[in-house]
Structure formats: C-alpha cells, structure tokens
Amino acid sequence: MKQYTVEITDEALADMEHIYNHIAYVLLAPENAMGQYNRIADEIIKLDVFPERFRIMDSEPEHSKGIHRMLVDNYSVFYVIKDDRVIVTDVLYSASDIENRLKD
User: Fold this and answer.
1) By residue range, what is the domain housing residue 88?
2) Tell me, what's the pLDDT at 95?
3) What is the pLDDT of residue 94?
4) SS (H, E, C) 39-85
5) First to last CA, the chain
6) CATH, residue 30
7) Considering its fold, how many domains does the chain have in total?
8) CB-CB contact of 34 with 20 (8 Å)
9) Is the dihedral angle over the CA atoms 48, 64, 104, 24 positive or is it negative?
C-alpha cells in the first residue's frame, strides 16, 4: 500500500492553535481543547495511507485545485495530494463561512 508524507502548513497549524485557544480560553474548557486538538491531529496523521478516501470539494476554485475535505467532529481539514505528499492547508470550524475563509 502506498505511503504518503503528511505535511501541515504553518497556516493549518495556526488554525489548530486558534481552535485550541478558543475552546480553552473563550469556552473555558482546556481539557476539551486538548482532546479536540489531539483528535484533529490524529486524523491528519492517518492521511498517510489512502488520502483519496475523502472527496475533492465540489465548489470552485477548490475543485480545480484538487482540495479534499475531511471532517473531524465539527471541524473540516482541507488538503491537497501532490505526488507522494499530503499537504494540509487549513483546519476550519465547519459551521463557519468555509468558502470565504479558504479564499483568504
């Protein structure tokens, strides 16, 4: 079975830190924040095998760019597959305005 190298962009890491900080300091639930952070990280790591199992987005320009979307609880992990690499580009709250947030 083909093995991919998973890379997380600085922007995606910043997204994950923002999620952690929001849950820990705004919602005052630091234990929940760490659990959510770890669940997202664990699912990202699993993209090293068969990352094609998650569909390419239907919306444009995401579809043309080959951006895949993986759901983890209430969060969406966005990534592209390039050769033997999976590059995670964004991690966003699924109820947010995803299309506009991806354009930023």
Assistant:
1) 5-103
2) 74
3) 83
4) HHHHHHHHHHECHHHCCECCCCCHHHHCCEEEEECCEEEEEEEECCE
5) 35
6) 3.30.2310.20
7) 1
8) yes
9) negative
pTM: 0.92
Residue 82: burial class (beta carbons within 10 Å; 0-12, 13-18, 19+) = exposed
Task: Encode pLDDT of 65-80 as tens digits.
Answer: 999 999 999 999 999 9
| Greatest C-alpha distance within the chain | 43
Read off the pLDDT of residues 16-65 as tens digits, 9 standing for 90 and up: 999 999 999 999 999 999 999 999 999 999 999 999 999 999 989 999 99
Size of the chain, expressed as the number of residues it contains: 104
Cα(73)–Cα(93) distance, rounded to whole angstroms?
9
What does DSSP say about strands 5-8 and 85-93: parallel, antiparallel, or unpaired? parallel
| 3 state SS of 9 | coil
Question: What is the pLDDT confidence band of residue 8, given thresholds at 50, 70 and 90?
Answer: very high
33, containing H or E segment:
helix 30-45
